[in-house]
Amino acid sequence: MNINDKSVLEMLNKLIVIHRLNKSQILQMVNLVSISNDIHDLKDNLKWESSKSFHQNILNT
Q1: Sign of the C-alpha dihedral computed for residues 6, 10, 11 and 16 taken in this order
Q2: How far, CA to CA in Å, does 10 sit from each of 24, 53, 57?
Q3: pLDDT tens-digit readout, 28-38
Q4: What is the pLDDT of residues 2-59, one digit of tens each?
Q5: CB-hemisphere CA count at 13 Å for 16?
Q6: Which residues of 11-49 are buried (b: 16+ CB within 10 A; e: fewer)?
Q7: Between the CA of residue 37 and those of 54, 57, 59, what are the distances in Å?
Q8: Rounded to an integer, what distance in angstroms lies between the CA atom of residue 41 and that of residue 19?
């Protein structure tokens, strides 16, 4: 997806508001937009990244 596309930016803003994302989540989402094909792909990538972070935190404790 193209981060410079107006419709993509509107969609990201909606996601930020609906899910009340914090700064780090917003940055993570913005980074994943460029490698995502569509909104469903972006959501899958976000889930994968969050589970990856969760597992890394468990391993590091």
Answers
A1: positive
A2: 19, 27, 32
A3: 889 999 999 99
A4: 888 999 999 999 989 998 988 988 998 899 999 999 989 998 998 888 786 655 544 4
A5: 15
A6: bbeebeeeeebeeebeebbeebbeebeeeeebeebbeee
A7: 24, 28, 31
A8: 17
